[in-house]
Each structure stands twice: as C-alpha cells, then as structure tokens.
Write a structure and sequence with these properties.
Length: about 290
Amino acid sequence: MARPLITTTAIMEHVRKLEDEHPPIRLDSVDRTIVNAPVVRERFAPVIDYLARVELEVDRNVLELLTILPGVSEVDRYFYQDVWQPQEVAHGVILDRLQVDLGLPPSNVFLGIPMRMKFLGALAHLPAIQEISRLLYYLTGAATERQAVVAYSRFTDQLNELGEKAISQTIIGQIKRQEPGHFAFYQMSATQMIQDGVLAPWQLFVARVLREKGFALVGTNYEKQLEANLGGVLVGLEFDTELERYAKDVGRLEAKLLWANKNGMEFPPYFLEAMRQSVDLYRERGFNPAPA
Ligand SMILES: [Fe+2]
Ligand SMILES: [Fe+2]
C-alpha cells in the first residue's frame, strides 16, 4: 500500500529526462497547412488566443517565481530555467504563428507582476512564508499543467474531426506531449513537501485560506474579461457541459494534498466556482482578445 517516498534525486532525474527527451519544439518542424481557415477561426479563435497568450506569459511566471521564492532550490531552478521556460516559450511561438496564419491578431501578453505577488514577495524572506509560497507554487503549477494536458487532448480530437491533421499532429500534438512531464514535476514536488511534513499545521491552514480566497484559473490575472475569455475556451472545447468532471480532473491532486480529501472531497469547490463564473462571464460579455 505504501508508496515509495519522493526524493529530490528522483525529481532531479525526472527533470533531466524531460530536458533530454523534449527539446523545445522548433518552428520549422511544424506543418503550417490549414484546410479551412474560416472554420478553424470561427470555432477556435478564443481557444488559440488563450493558449498562445498563457504559453507566452511564462516569462512573467518566472519573474513572479523569483519574487515569491527568492531562495529558490537547485532543482526548482533547473526545472523552470533550463527546461520548462524554453519549452513553454516555444509552445507560445508556434501557437502565435498559427493565430497569424489564421488571420487572427497576435497575442496580447501581460508581463507585469500583480500586486498580490509583490505582497507575498515582501514577506518571502521569512522562511515560514516561503514554504507556504513554495507549496502554492507547486499546486498552481500542477493545476495549470493539468488544464493544459486536458485542453490539448480535447483540442487534438476536435481538430481531427475537422480534418485539420497538420495542426492537430504537428502543432497541438507536439505541444501536448510536453505537458504531462510538467504536471509530473509539480505533482512530485508538492507531494514531497506534504509527505516530508515540511509545513506545520498553521502553515497548511494559511495555504488553504490563501487558496480559497485567492484562487484564479490559469491566465485570468484577476481580470473579468480574461476570465470571460477563459470561459470561451471552456465553451470552445465543449467542457462547459461537463464542468464537474473537468474540475475533478484538474483539482483532484489539490484535494488530496491540501485538503486530505476532507469529507471525501473530490476537488476543492473553488475550482468549480471559478470555472462556472468564467463560463457565465463569457455568455455575458463574449470574447475580447485585447481587453484594455
Ligand atoms: Fe505549454
Ligand atoms: Fe506546460
């Protein structure tokens, strides 16, 4: 029953494997054939815009990370700097190219650091706070990468149905293969912290409060229009009719690690609330690729 403990050496090996097996995707490896641009544009403009922007915003994520985790460990640094960031930027570049090929505007990337991050950063020199931030960083990373895995899988299927084989295989298919390794890194790192009892009960309590009060889905940056745009992604990928399943898929790890499956919790309720709200906002406001 007992699972083997996760060690830093095992995480290090995982990252090395990602580096060896998944070099950043090259733009010239992409087949840019599009069968029916108007149809792809009509159905998937919000999806492609959102994915491209979030992938390109990784540079901001790195700045945020350095703000909240000034004493970053070697394994974390190796992952985000040498492996994760170059891979994600390449995802963003080929998706951005796809947008332009489809006649859509390129992504409107936001690279500032939100106030709340600066606040956490100001406290980050306190080791007890930094441990909380580190757990939240892993949990956020895991939820984000899991959303990417699920979204790219669904998108691949939909493109195949439309006969857009070049996009599905050489763009989305290539990206899709790199996301599970990112998820695994965050999953292993968060699990290691919990298994080793790094956080005292009060720190876990603070982590839960921060998550409950401050939860935001990937790329929404606490902005209503970006939340609506994410709703457009959920509708475009047809997750809006099965949000609970999606929330379970994305939030399962966090329920297990942070809430210890409290009362049989399958996913933290704030996941589903945030998803519902984004779909509602999309129905109210529609999609806008360049909010003020
Ligand atoms: Fe990615
Ligand atoms: Fe990723």
